[in-house]
Amino acid sequence: MSFAELTGRRQVARLRETALSALRAYPFQVRRLRLLNHGFNTTFRVDTQDGQKFALRINVNSRRSAEQIAAEMAWLAALSADTALRVPTPVPLADGSLLQHIWSSDLQRDLPVALFSWLPGGDLGDEATPAQWREVGRAAALLHGHALNWPLPAGAALSSLHHPLMDSANHLTGDHELLTAERREVLDETLRRVQEVLTNIFKREVPRPLHADLHGWNLKWARGKLYVFDFDDCGLGVPLQDLAISAYYLRPAAELEAALLEGYAAQAPLPSYTPLDYESVVAGRNLVLLNDVLVNTTAEIRAMQPRYVRNSVLKLRHFLETGEYRHDLPGVEQAG
């Protein structure tokens, strides 16, 4: 039985062994290993015998190269050193390296594994306030300001986010039982429109490192302070993309989306865009997520594929017809 065919519980059990193998390289004894997330990647909380806490991430579904992950680690280290932003700091191994590759017999490939400093608090999730999202906007502006002048170190590289699917291979046009001819037509036209917008924006703006996944489950809040984590999708793009990605997850909460933009504008000028540019990049986020869902190996995500495809096509067809991207449409099927 392949890894993709295992239940979620059995997948986590196998990955727990990968995590424990990676942790043997650090100078502490593990007291407890607890699952935090099993989705695109898998993350465990690590409690040590001497009272330390860390987060260990295994890149299970990520297709990022060693050079791209090296760039992520270097940028996190620089953000920790150069700014007041609260981000996870990579924990070095004895030789100073920030990443391991652990062989997985289940997936028949090496899995990148990294250990990070622990961030306190709970995820903002979908219960955040406008005041909190103003802080997210401010943090995004600080990230973009730092990134504009930060040089990539030797041996590190970031992929371009110029394509609507970012740096992922296109699975939206391949053979898949859920992608009928009618559905492909909607996806193809959305891809074309989003690409046109991104091409025009990239011509007039200087690409820089972006977080590229700023949503409420990659943000923590503790004692009035914001923490930003999960830079696994970072790449070279333009500031509008980070804002539009956040907006995708906030809708239909217009007051939260407005707070995000207000917070950004209080720290730095908002990027220039037309309403259609903005809506197109928001819709592009749906393409990215659908593209990943179609090939994801995590059991729970595989189970949601039929519903996710139906909902995505409905939302993207509405965008093509109206120029507005919405989640709250008649006919959209909710989880559960």
Automatic annotation (TrEMBL):
One of its GO terms (molecular function) is homoserine kinase activity. SUPFAM superfamilies: Protein kinase-like (PK-like) (SSF56112). This is Aminoglycoside phosphotransferase domain-containing protein. PANTHER family: AMINOGLYCOSIDE PHOSPHOTRANSFERASE DOMAIN-CONTAINING PROTEIN (PTHR21064:SF6), AMINOGLYCOSIDE PHOSPHOTRANSFERASE DOMAIN-CONTAINING PROTEIN-RELATED (PTHR21064). Belongs to the pseudomonas-type ThrB family. One of its GO terms (biological process) is threonine biosynthetic process. It comes from the Bacteria. It comes from Deinococcus cavernae. Residues 34-265 form the Aminoglycoside phosphotransferase domain. It holds the Pfam family APH.
